[in-house]
Structures are given as C-alpha cells and as structure tokens.
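Section 3.1: Structural characterization of target chains.
Under the original work plan, the team committed to producing a structural model for every single-chain target entering the pipeline before any wet-lab resources were allocated. The record below documents one such target. The sequence was received from the expression subgroup and is listed exactly as submitted; it comprises 514 residues.
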Amino acid sequence: MFNFSDLKIVKRRGKGDDFVGIRKSQSGNGFDFCLPHGFQDFPENDYESTKKLFFRMYRMFRRFEEDNLQTGRVILSDRRYQKDQDQASVSSGGVEYSVSMDNDTPILYSKLASIQNLFEAYSELALISLSSKMRKVSCIDYSKIHRYLDKAVYLDGDVAYVDEISQAQPVLKYQGCEIVEMYCYILNEVVLQLEEDVTDEILESLPRISHNANEFRASYLSQDQSLFSEETFEETLSILRDVLEKIDNNTAYKDGDYWSIYDSIEKFLYGQISPGEFDGDFWGITKFSYLWEDLCNSYMFKHHYQTICLADTDITRQDHVNELRGGSHVGNKRFGGRYIYENPSPKYSDEVFEWLECLRLSLDFNPRKFLYKKDDNKSLYGQYRHHVDPTRQLYRQMLPDIIFVREDEQGEGLSLLDYKYVSKDFFKKHQDKDFRDSENKYKEDVAKQLLYETTLQEYLCEKHTIRKVSENAFLIPFYDDTSPFIIIDSGLKDIKGIKIYEANFFLLQEDYIS
C-alpha cells in the first residue's frame, strides 16, 4: 500500500500525456500522483488531502469501469490478470482494461489489485469456516456412542472401539481466528476510507467485520495506530507484516480459504506497482478526457434532464424506451456504431425537431441537368433534374457533447456545450495570438464549435422558428473543495463568441460517485 506522504503531486505534464493516477516516477525514485487538468490549486505536501483524493479517485475509477463494462466498451486483457497462482505474489498486481471508443486508440485502465484483492477474497462462509475447523478430539459423549459406530474400529467379537472423532471446534490461536481478525482489520480500515462505498455483501457484514477488527486491534495495536494515519502508517505497517509472518509460521493446516485470505493480506502489505512486469505498470487511466465527459454528462442528466435535446452519450433512462426495442422514439438511438441521446420534444419546446438532422452535413455528387419547359401561358421556366444515386451522396454527422434549452432575460434559446479536458492555461496562451498561428487542437476545437452553431442556426431559420442559439460554450475542469458553485465563468475572453466555463471537479466527482 502507498504511504501518501511519499507521493509526488504532479499537476503539469508533457504535451499528449493525459494520464491520471499513480505511476512510477520517470526518474525511477518513488511514485507520481498525476492529477487532472485544472488542479493548480490542489494543496501539496498535504497528507489528508492526498489520501482523500486517492480514495475518491478509486471510487470514481470503479464506477467508470462498472458503467463501461455494462455498455460493452471495456474489454478485459487476460494476460495481465493472473487470477490463479500456486503461491502468493508480493507485487500489487494489476488488471488492465482496453476501452474502445470511436475506433480511437484504446484507453488503458489499470486497477490497483492490492485493494481489489481484499474485496475479491471476502466470503462470509470462508471467514466462518476458518474460525471453526474440524479437528480430532478425544472428549466423547458415550451416551451417543451409536452415532459414532461408522467411525469405530471393530475388534474380535464385534466389539466397537472409538478412541477419537472429528468434530467442529474453534481452532487454536495463530490459525483461522487470527488471520480472519487481521483480514477484517485491514478490510475495515479500507471500507472506512471508501466511506462504506462497497458491495452489499460487505456492507451487511460490517458489524461482524468491525467486531473482528476490534479484536485484532486490542491484541496488537493501540487506539492511535492506523494504516491511514500520517504519523503511524509506517509503524502500523511494520507490526502487521510481523504478525502475518507469525501467523503463517504457526499455522499447520492451510486450506484454500486460508490461502485466499493470506494472499490478499500479503498483496496489500507488500504490494507495489512494478513497471516492466505483467502485474500492473500503473494505477489509473490514460485518456482521462473520456472520464471527464462521463462526469459532465452524468451531472447534466441527473439535474437538467428535462431540458436536454441532444447528447453524444450512451447514458440510458429507465423512463424512456430505446428505439431499437420498439416504442417511443424519445431516448437513445444507434448512430454510427454508438448510442446518441435525442429528445425531440424537451420540456419547454412547442416544436418537434429531429436533432440529428439539424446537425447533418451532406454532399451530393449526383450530376444535374437544367431543363427548360413551357407552361400553359407559353412562358419558359427552368429547373434542375437529376437521378439520385445514394452511393454518390456523402454525409457527415456533427455531434456536440450536449444541446439543451436555457432561459435568460431575452427568452428561451438553445445552448451548445462541449466538454474540453484542457487546462485554463491552454486557452490563456492563445488569447493574444493570431488564430492562424495557434496550435492545431485549438483551431480545430474552435472551428468545429462554430460550425455546430452555424449549421444549427441555419436549420432553425429554415423552420421559421423563433428559437435561436443563444449560447455556445466550452466547459473545462477546475478544483476547489471549498466552493459551493458547480459551474462558474472562467473569466477568460470569449473566443469568437464561444464562452468558456469552468466546472468544479470536486463537486462533479462527488455527484458521480454518489
């Protein structure tokens, strides 16, 4: 397990490095805790803040994994998951997932097995069985001798002799009981840090887990010692390693339940990230932009669902029917290999729009002829005619992250919003530059956003609707664990009419993991 005091906080990285999580320092000394963009104000050398962020990140990554496993966007890479081992591995292990989105380079996500294995090893029946094993006893109730005849030795003259029997009894110290208590102590410490965000099975068993944890603490630790205290981490870790060694040396009978618990404890106490091996090069996720989009979309769907017109997401709603399965056409549509949320009739709208149609560009290569024709008044007029060949038509679907209805002092309008996983400095450095001299990503993002607005506004004009595009904006992350505001004005100048807002990562994350 990590000593959070030893983690080096990294807020800025090289171009193209979007990794968020913990990995070996490039210098080879220690570990880097790489934070998302917008974390310039995160405190450094602050044990409690670092620990709190780590466990919130752990919960967020787990939620992201679970959501994407359900959508089929995550593929487990078996070569990095050594589930069955003949002996315990002292490395932290690692589970790597490849997330495929838009045929882009896969996202790599590696789980921290030192914690993961604690949960996977949990089994109520296994803990009970370790605390009460069958062993040979000589105390026999001879009034019930008829029950033991199948275990008797028969002497000459059909005399039944019973010397000892196998009976379930509590095992000796340094066997089942103490390794269970030690496991429960570590598990209880982790569960507290995760704010009890664990499986229902563990949550229901917390009273038993806490009881065993207190028994272990009473035997070996003081009330002040803890695995997650800056002052006592090293001391507590050393005690636990010594106790584990004593338990193992004094345990004669070791079955599958024992080894499952023992391995999970050992990985937790000794596990480290080991680059270059098939057991996890890092803990975290590359291409964090996809998770940033999930954070933003989850917030928008939870709090502003009724106003959403279109969203580039596969978030599903239980109160709407997927079009592919029949029923209402309000909901998620399959488009271009992925699901798009389209709501043609938001709460405040009197019109019905096909939003995908609003943002579709088409290019027609079919040949045309201009023909003259006489009408009954003997005047001539011309018109284009051509045979439509679908193979000679090209389409491009433009998809902003989200379009929703908003009201301001000028009335009701549409808001275009794209989530950008970049820092505030990214826009600052381009403010005073000539647009043509800006880097490609900046120019492409701005041009694409302006194209969304232009195409949508032209469509609305053709429909002769009073509705208008009233706002076009980017949403970037910032971190502040004291601010009550979720979305604020960045204070940056508009970019060709595009506003820049900041979203409080701390509050979005809290909403996401809840």
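The chain has three domains: 4-119+270-285, 124-259, 289-359+398-513.
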